[in-house]
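Journal club prep, notes for RB
We'll compare a predicted complex against what the paper describes. Inputs for the protoporphyrin IX containing FE case:
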Amino acid sequence: MRKIIKDKKIIDDSWVVLTEAQDPLPSGKLIVSVALWQSHKEQLLSHSDEIGVLLEPENEPAEIADDLAQFSLIAINFPKFADGRGYSSARELRTRHHYNKEIRAVGDVLRDQIYLMARCGFNAFAVREDRCINDALNAFNDFSVNYQADAVEQRPLYQTR
Amino acid sequence: MYVYSEYDQKIIEERVAQYRGQTERFLAGELSEDEFLVLRLQNGLYVQRHAPMLRIAIPHGMFNSQQMRKFAELSRTYDKGYAHFTTRQNLQLNWPKLEQVPNILEELASVQMHAIQTSGNCIRNTTSDQYAGVAKDEIVDPRPYCEIIRQWSTFHPEFALLGRKFKIAVSGSKQDRAAVQVHDVGLYLTHNAAGELGFKVYVGGGLGRTPVVAPLINEYVAERDILSYLEAVLRVYNRNGRRDNKYKARIKILVRAMTPEVFAAKVEKEWAELKDGPMTLPQQEIDRVKACFQPPAYEQLEEHNEAFLGKYETDNAFKIWVNQNVVTHKVPGYSIVNISLKNTSRAPGDVSAEDMDIIADLADQYSFSELRSTHAQNLVLADVKQSQLYELWQTLKSHQFATPNIGLLTDMICCPGGDFCALANAKSIPIAEQIQRRFDNLDYLHDLGEIELNISGCMNACGHHHVGNIGVLGVDKKGSEFYQISIGGSSKEDATIGKILGPSFDEDEVADVVEKIINVYVEQRTEGERFIDTTRRIGIDPFKERVYAKNN
Ligand code: HEM
Ligand code: SF4
């Protein structure tokens, strides 16, 4: 089973990505695209297990804002690690929409981006499979002080020093 | 100048450790070229034509003699004994070894310096007025705000991987010496009708392929709200800026596509949620940072020093230097001294290790140990006693730092160009030298007055050619180097993009063409009219006719 990092621990991942509509739905926890969610809402809502949604870099959190209560997980895809739009998506989900369940980084997820991703509100990381997930755990210790407020610490350094 | 708190120090030390780890993993093959590229760029390390280049941040252009000596030492130990001051007030080492960069960073950290975010698609070093805190026309000292913005932008979690680089400049005086309106965000300190301090905010300026003077996006953002406002601007850019084409990825393209009005409205909406939240700057924090920029212990002096006046009246060379390179200080009896890094003995902005040590000594001896770098690639001693000017001038002269050409035609801004840069279409340093040699008559130069000539080796515009009163751009024509000339640009408060005269010129024609342009100016100018004003009054046609006239 694939391993991921969640809440700074390595765990087995049991979510399945559903790329096309199916009737009946496969069993288990399913992650669907925004388009699939919007076109098959009724069917997905009747699913017996948990549902998650996958945001691409161009998807605005606002597109799913009304349905957040239905999702146990929001995955944010990084087709290329250098495309930083997903950082703002996670931050908005946490600080504007107050989404408090799992936000998972998927795709080109590498150790060197994890520290800042965590600050933007990601708490789960599907580290790229060719990379050492144990090594990625070290990323959380890159810094011990931050200047800015973020999705985890609401006060910037100048409010706490 | 700003002095690090324990937090600032900790952050740069942890950064050194992080970057060392990244370098080691790259060398061990655990990071691919492409992955490491993004990481090293975030740390100012380019790989260019001959070797890597490391860009060291000089926040808002302020540094001290100890840091200058460290630069000298680093350039001796890790480089070829010289370094280069850039148009963004930073310092570049041209030949460091990639494996040694972590050690260089560790040494820099020991003197409160770093290379964080000096390149890459992130928020870059915030630049400012080289005369900040001492200029007579200053409304408010911009440096504390630059430092506050530096801290906010350093490892900002949300904006580390933007669509493109992002540059902020701040000015607090009547005259804009920081090219504010050609930045991604430009800020002018200002007062509102109630006399409260805030910022005028311009967004979406820039040079490069698509030169744009930034539109005004907000007339007044209060001092305490500036970080939440910037956060809103950056979020709108990060979410909406183009990612499909690197030449269309700067915020200037987004602002233009959306229109400034729609962009401003989107920012306003985003800001509504952040405003008055925890990002609001407490007065206490503003005061803490301001305390680092208190004026040095000035003596009470006469407005005019007798001995100085005596020398000024009797030594003509000294008088010329004072008139051109020395600027009036806001405190009586003190002067601002420009150290010219423009003469035929060096590439514009280059300084040798020996020179760096000498300049550090001069800062200790004459100017409270502080130095500034300027966007025109010169250095400044900001607090020199008038009574010591003569003595200082003699020392500067003996080291070729006293060419009295600040603001004149030969005080050129020039990028490293084809001699160093892999992206260049053409060389730029030899062009600067060609023009230096042609206009070597100081009396004539002084008669011509203020003319900004800027040279870039390609359309990336590192040498700010678009906003030069005269701009020279290297272009590639069937594999040979040619130069396109524009006139009428300005980077000041009246920021303007220059107009291209026409077809480009061969390398050895450039000085001739500049001379023809100057001749038209001399013939056409009215009493006391500056070059830029003449070009605005008569337009480019008379210049065009002259430079393209058939000989005979
Ligand atoms: C030698 C290696 C260098 C490389 C490879 C390099 C690369 C680049 C590139 C690719 C751009 C493109 C910007 C765009 O698309 O907007 C750029 C812009 C710029 N560079 Fe450099 N550069 C180098 C050296 C320098 C130096 C030495 C300076 C200062 C003298 C400098 C100052 C700038 C500035 C001010 C811009 C911005 C122009 C704008 O506002 O758009 N660069 N550089
Ligand atoms: S303007 Fe072009 S040639 Fe000059 S330094 Fe920049 S990228 Fe290189």
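Talking point for the session: Residues B 46, 48, 53, 84, 86-88, 92, 206-208, 415-416, 420-423, 460-462 surround protoporphyrin IX containing FE (ligand 1) (CB under 6 Å).
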